[in-house]
Write a structure and sequence with these properties.
This protein has 5 helices and 3 strands, in the order βααββααα. By secondary structure, the chain is mainly α. The N and C termini lie far apart (about 40 Å).
Length: about 100
């Protein structure tokens, strides 16, 4: 397993065709759901951190990349999806958005 290819944030984002912001948002949402008690455990793979390098970059294995692809394919897009409040062009007018401002 030591010879597994490891992917940086940039490489992961290129392979998933997403931005680094989107990847960070996936992990932020997971953390918020755990904090709010909506889920018990993490559903996204935990990347390895290289603590010897400045900025402690994160790296994902091939298996973790597959898990992220599976997660990506399970996302419901549009205004009714989990990220709908952010992908809806009129999201600032939605009740869900206004509630998110008052609830945290």
């Amino acid at each position: 397993m030591k010879n597994d290819k490891k992917y940086s944030v940039t490489e992961i984002c290129e392979k998933l065709n997403i931005s680094a912001f989107t990847l960070r948002h996936w992990y932020d949402l997971q953390t918020k759901q755990i904090k709010d008690g909506l889920i018990d455990k993490e559903y996204l793979p935990t990347p390895e951190r290289d603590v010897t390098m400045k900025g402690r970059p994160r790296y994902w294995t091939e298996k973790q990349l597959k898990e992220l692809k599976d997660y990506q394919s399970s996302i419901t897009y549009g205004r009714n999806g989990i990220y709908g409040v952010y992908s809806n062009p009129n999201h600032k007018e939605t009740k869900k958005y206004k509630n998110s401002l008052t609830n945290g």
